[in-house]
Fold:
Amino acid sequence: MCSRTQLDSLFPAVWRTTTIGGLTYAYVDEGVGHPVVLVHGNPTWSFHFRSLVDRLPAAGYRVVAPDHIGMGRSAKPTRTGYPHTLARRVADFTEFMAAVVPDGPVTLVVHDWGGSIALTWAVAHPDRIARLVLLNTAAFPLPAGKGLPLALRATRTPLGALAVLYGNAFAVGAALLGARRRLPAPVRRGYLAPYDRPSRRVAVLEFVRDIPVRTGDPAHAVLRDTEQRLAVFRDRPVLICWGMRDFVLDADILRRWLEIFPAADVHRFADAGHYVMEDATEAVGDLVVELLARPSSAAPAGAR
Structure:
């Protein structure tokens, strides 16, 4: 596994904590200026955004990157000690934003489940959103006729659950296959560092179980309601950076985003996978910096 020294050298951020729902909620908060909130998915953590955490403060922005409960450096409750549902994660993120970034416009950068969580908060607080950056993410139910890939379906079986909890199969597989280029071993270990024992992998499994495939699944109604309100952001700058070799959040999901945001600035990375921040680090970073320089109707005069 990745030692503390190695991890600190890869991701030399100052860690802060707050208490959300009685649990420790860890986050990074670096720089000053317009807040850029980076929201990760599963099975990653704020480590996924380390290049932006390094780059954006020097460009004059404040970066805030939370770790969801059960992920990264946040608390790791048991399956029965925490709901592990999308609705609860949205409530956690809502409480976090009220405590840490309580007012003013923000730019959201979201990846994977981070889109479902942060954009559900966003549609309830549209006046807070200056810009959106979408990185291989979704905030709506699966398009009609589309099911889960076999690899995800397998994790929802009893044998698959054991593999995720006791073999760390989902996090290891993502570290190996999430990026098209082979990640250096220390980086792979960095992704896996928070999930070094079965008791710390509960959220990884529960995130997969929470993906709605039927209308009766708990997360389905949340995502349906979010989807219906996303068009409120059509007047804001929206940047989409998409790894086209993602076999889960694929071209069909991107197509749905283009229906919602037809004027979005879209950049397709043909040789990038789900971890587009790893495969196209500099290019995505450049595009985010360019986006932040654009005015937004949600930002008051003089604000970035």
Notes: The longest strand covers residues 129-137. The beta strands are 15-20, 23-30, 34-39, 61-66, 106-112, 129-137, 238-243, 265-269.
